Amino acid sequence: MMEYLAGRKVEVVVVGSVAMLAWVALSYYWWWRSSEAARVKNFVRSHSSSDGSLPSPMPALPRWCGFIGGHTLVMQPGETVWQLEGWAKEFGGDYELYLAGNKVTVVSGLSDIRRILTLRPSKFKRGIVTNQTKWASEQVGVQSSLFFEEGKTWGRSRRLISPNLNGHNVAAMLPIIAKVGERFCGKLGDKADAREVVTSRDSFARFTHDIVALAAFGVDVGAITATEEEPCPSFDAIERITSALISLMGKPAEILKWKYLPMVPWVRETKQHSRRLENVIQGAVNAVRADAKLADANLGDSAAEGDVGIGGTMLRKIIGATNGSANSSDRMLFNERELMHQANGLFVAATETTALTLCWCMYYLTKNPKAALRCRAEALKVAPESDGMVSTAEQLKRLRFCAAVFKEALRLRTPAPRLSFTCTEDFTMKSGRVLKKGTAVLTLNRAVGISEDFFTRGDEFVPERWISSEREKALSEKQSTWIGKGGISHEEEAFLSMGHGPRICPGQDMAKAEGAIIIAAICARFDLSLAPGQADPPEEYSSFTCGPKEFNMILTRTAKDE
User: Fold this and answer.
1) Is 361 part of any known ligand binding site?
2) What is the C-alpha separation between 248 and 471, in angstroms, rounded?
3) For FRET with 22, which of 7, 303, 370, 441 sits at 20 to 30 Å CA-CA?
4) CA-CA distance, 497 to 105, in Å (whole number)?
């Protein structure tokens, strides 16, 4: 009996102790939540803190909880960009987050963002988010390339690749873009005739993939015309790689599978697709090298100029790049491994980002039929013989409104709305606050681009704002919530969708050309409308890029094409 009572006494003590600890923990948590809520509320009301520190949103757990502390559990997968931009509005500027045990300063001021972008890579290097993307990319076979490199390695790659994507060289690619555009419009015409829904993300990704393959690598992979019976290995590989990237960026369980369960089907299949993409790129490299040798032997180096076949591709120029000297000892050639890595990165990046922007272009045109009709009129005026399909630099210059549509969609819905950096030395912000060496920084590039401080009617689709002679009239048609200096606010410096400074997007000229050309061709040949059941606006999903989760539309041939 005594032993039983002694055992019960021990149980009571243990249960009581656990209950006491739970009560203390819950009391502390209640006090902590109350104090944090009061701190956030006070800052939102007064826009200042008692200790001069930056504001911080309401965290889920105290920051000393390590990886899950601070705001880690607050961030919603797929909605992080909207959360970041919403907090910038709530606090009226910069603020701090605590993510996975790291303090992150979120910067939303235009002057500070432009200075940060200008000072990289000397004073700012890639940050936490970008390093996570780099790790995930390397896991799925997209090794370090121009988009992830730092220091002298990045400088060398930039000098070899960027000149081949400037306006002059893109002009030589226009016949290829038009060729792929005709194929793409033919496919869209088949869907229009059958009254089939056009799945825009997949369709535009195939369009941009074929352009990159043919214009940059000299290989016609046929993603647009691929079927289930005759698939496109390179496109299927990139789709699988992109899907794996999204999983590895936001799902810890998938990371564990990748590391420790290599026989899980999606892990095994992703690695197989990665090898298939490498095989396609290696085949292109071999073909270009063989063609370059033949061209050099028969016609000399000048034969490549303006050629739209394999001999004139960007890949051939990269392989034959020199440092301004004919001496072979001065060549800055990539070795075989570097060349494969750079080609792989270009293939993946160029396929995804332009396609996402084109999806948004189509959405805004379905919602603004007057803009679509103006694109049609402009396209048929510039290229009447080819049903609006532009193929020369002179014609492209005349697609002013179509180019404005692409740029406006890019301003509103850039695929890269935020960038991640780490300070390599102390940095003084415009406010006088000093970011210490090693500080993690997130810049909200899109938040600046849609701000009423810099663009009147900043959250509205007004492509005329990019045509100086039409800007004031177009922006004055509707009352704005904010009128900048001089009545109309239009700060071109706030357009950061392509980045800024030394690491501005190297493919921006090619992306703009693709966008204007295919917008003109589609509007010239089809009427656009939302597909039944399509969300309006489309749900936006953010991972390593940002774009519509899905966007489906219905195309109808214009009267002259029926």
Assistant:
1) no
2) 43
3) 7
4) 20
pTM: 0.86
Q: What is the pLDDT of residues 292-351, one digit of tens each?
A: 666 555 544 443 333 334 334 677 777 765 434 344 333 457 777 888 888 888 877 778
- Element of type H or E holding 441: strand 440-444
Q: In Å, how far are 55, 123, 358, 387 from 112, measured between CA atoms?
A: 17, 13, 30, 46
Q: Are the beta carbons of 54 and 435 closer than 8 angstroms?
A: no
Q: What band does 522 get if pLDDT is binned at 50, 70 and 90? A: very high
> Could you give the CA distance from residue 436 to residue 122 in angstroms, rounded to a whole number?
15
pLDDT tens digits for range 80-124: 888 999 999 888 889 999 887 788 999 999 999 999 999 988 889
Summarize pLDDT for 31-49 with one digit per residue, the tens.
Answer: 656 666 666 666 555 555 5
Q: Pairing relation of β-strands 540-542 and 546-548?
A: antiparallel
Cα gap 6→19, rounded to integer Å: 20
Angle between helices 252-260 and 265-298 (to 10 degrees): 70
What's the pLDDT score for residue 481?
A: 45
Residue 302: what pLDDT? Answer: 40
Q: If you search the block for the tokens 């121009």, which residue do you land on?
A: 146
Q: Which two tokens stand for residue 164?
A: 């081949």
Name the one residue in this structure whose structure tokens are 């800007």.
Answer: 471
Eight-state DSSP code of residue 198 = E
**CATH (residue range 151-416+497-561):** 1.10.630.10
Nearest residue to 449 via CA among 479, 419, 427, 420: 419
How many helices and strands in the chain, by DSSP H and E?
A: 19, 12
Residue showing tokens 């105290």: 62
Helix, strand, coil tally for the chain in percent (to 5): 60, 10, 30
